[in-house]
Amino acid sequence: MQFCQVCGNDIDSLTVLCPFCGSRQEHEPSQTVGTEFRQKTINLEQGLPTVDQALNRLQQEVSAARLEQIRLLTLIHGYGSSGKGGSIRQECRKLLDYLLNSGDICAVIYGENFNRRHGFVKQLLRRFPRLATHPHLNNRNRGITLVQLF
Length: 150
Fold this sequence. Notes:
four-stranded mixed β-sheet; 3 helices
């Protein structure tokens, strides 16, 4: 097993294209595990959970990501069908704001702000150049939120 070089999800070591984000994997022995910028994508909508179930999963995934030394989570919470944002999206973002203000996470980037021209995203891209291949960069996707962990 290894981790996708773009999204950070577990993939088979012989995988050429990541089944999660579709990125091409390079298999070079010179890469060192542990020094790479590790990302993971989490689909909070999977299984059509209630808002409480999605929030519980979010908290579990943030805790697990810390233990796995993942630096960035891409949360897929959806936008909802109402045209003004769904309940899971709204409540996830409230919880993330709380975690940010309490110092449990480093930063939150809403999908609509995940643009290479956005000031904080520019800084993140300089620190982690591999983030430039993120499939949602510059898409203004209101159905995702990125979370930077310490």
